Amino acid sequence: MKSIDRMGFEEATPIQSETIPVALTGKDVIGQAQTGTGKTIAFGLPLLENVDVTNESIQGIVIAPTRELAIQVAEEIYKASYHKRARVLSVFGGQDISRQIRSLKKNPHIVVGTPGRLLDHINRKTLRLQNVNTVVLDEADEMLNMGFIEDIEKILAETPEKKQTLLFSATMPAPIRAIAERFMSEPVNVKVQAKELTISNIQQFYVEVPEKKKFDTLTRLLDIQSPELAIIFGRTKRRVDELSDALNVRGYSAEGIHGDLSQAKRMSVLRKFKEGSIDVLVATDVAARGLDISGVTHVYNFDIPQDPESYVHRIGRTGRAGKSGLAITFVSPREVSYLHHVERVTKRKMDKLKAPTLDEALEGQQKMSMEKLTQAVEAKNLGFYRNAAEQLLEEHDAVTLVSAALKLFTKEPDETPIRLTEEAPMHSRRGGGGRGGDRNRGGGKSSSGGGKGGWNKRSDSRGGKPGGGSGSRDASAKRQGYKRSSRKERV
Ligand SMILES: Nc1ncnc2c1ncn2[C@@H]1O[C@H](COP(=O)(O)OP(=O)(O)OP(=O)(O)O)[C@@H](O)[C@H]1O
Ligand SMILES: [Mg+2]
């Protein structure tokens, strides 16, 4: 409570008050609670409690799926450790390894890292984990999925048998939970009771729009909604590059982040976004999990995510710590049934939003200018401009003058033609022959006609088609494995 108070929070969040006492008894915990509800502190405080600062060895490790998340988690734990001044270090790929080796020599108590770089240090013998008493997997379901599990197994093999293991995420599909339990001893499941996987303070919408019209729809929505900070998710690195270029052409201040950029670039883009010197961040799923950036009011899924879990995490970049947010998902007509699948898994319906017209976009921008003008009037420091205004009013009527001022203020919707490489719709690319299947029956409820079908399983949502028939387990696993690694490359 002292730590929470010191961090400026009034009370513990439910996941914190439900997991911390259990974790303090030394038991293994699987903690699941919605995005933005303070899971970092929920595992961070028990982790810190297990650290003896007079002991010079590494006693806790946290493994996180992305570099930016590793940095953020290390910072949050450090902030929470004021009472004992634990040394917390983050290690991740893309950063000079010799610098990290020097920092590791300074005996951190807690190391937060991405799997690849942690393994690298283990292999170089610059990271010794034999005195670790607590291991945390943040975004545990992601870490125990195909792309990471081998690395995680290797890292865990370096830690003592007797230790406390804490797993946290907003999502925990049943098959992954089963894998998780293999790594743990009699874990206590703490799930903050919620009807929906997504948090209720995010309003959720979808827009049905043909692939070719997506971009115009996006810029019109940006004009109407005027987000403070927005994240736009695209499916691939190429998509992100093309989208951020296209947004700049139309006059938005946007930059992209994905796995092919240098680490320096990734960090500078994120810093600019946090400071608000760019207001649109275009991202692959590399930014989908865990990142806590205040002021993100809107999330746009320009491409619908690969699986329902990814949807939950992506939209969870807004609506954090009790704030409200808005999420809009774009689907082409052929993706509508897949969208309904996402809704079934999250147990939450999205409201349909009509694609706005050009006039509506202009109206939106005009409204913004009116607000700005009104604010300037209310600020009352216009003395210097009065003479000029009176001069103008001698020559023109007031309405004409204010109209001109508004016109100058207003960023009129820009329809400069943009060319984006088309993305295949979600289902046809991964249907493995499912192209002619149920999904072509069109949207609506048809795809749920076969009951739960095969879509409730994560593997099938990636590889299968509705109503089962996604091939043998083996083939499905292979497909999943293939997709898993290819997804890592794509982001
Ligand atoms: N007790 C608290 N009261 C208010 N705010 C809190 C509290 N604990 C943490 N926070 C703040 O809430 C925000 C979200 O916390 P955090 O990033 O830990 O969420 P999360 O549950 O891990 O979300 P995600 O699933 O997206 O990773 C952070 O800015 C954090 O500082
Ligand atoms: Mg988190």
Automatic annotation (TrEMBL):
CDD domains: DEADc, SF2_C_DEAD
Catalytic activity, EC: 3.6.4.13
PANTHER family: DEAD-BOX ATP-DEPENDENT RNA HELICASE 47, MITOCHONDRIAL (PTHR47963), DEAD-BOX ATP-DEPENDENT RNA HELICASE CSHA (PTHR47963:SF5)
Annotated keywords: ATP-binding, Cytoplasm, Helicase, Hydrolase, Nucleotide-binding, RNA-binding, Stress response
Pfam family, one: DEAD
InterPro entries hit by this protein: DEAD/DEAH_box_helicase_dom, DEAD/DEAH_RhlB, DEAD_box_RNA_helicases, DEAD_helicase_CshA, Helicase_ATP-bd, Helicase_C-like, P-loop_NTPase, RNA-helicase_DEAD-box_CS
Group of enzyme by EC: hydrolase
Gene3D superfamilies per UniProt: P-loop containing nucleotide triphosphate hydrolases
GO MF term (any one): helicase activity
Protein name, as recorded: DEAD-box ATP-dependent RNA helicase CshA
Composition-biased stretches (Gly residues): 443-454
Quaternary structure and partners: Oligomerizes, may be a member of the RNA degradosome.
Composition bias type Basic residues, residue spans: 480-491
Location of this chain's protein in the cell: Cytoplasm
Organism the protein comes from: Sutcliffiella horikoshii
Subcellular location, principal: cytoplasm
SUPFAM superfamilies assigned to the protein according to its UniProt record, in alphabetical order: P-loop containing nucleoside triphosphate hydrolases (SSF52540)
Catalysed conversion reaction: ATP + H2O = ADP + phosphate + H(+)
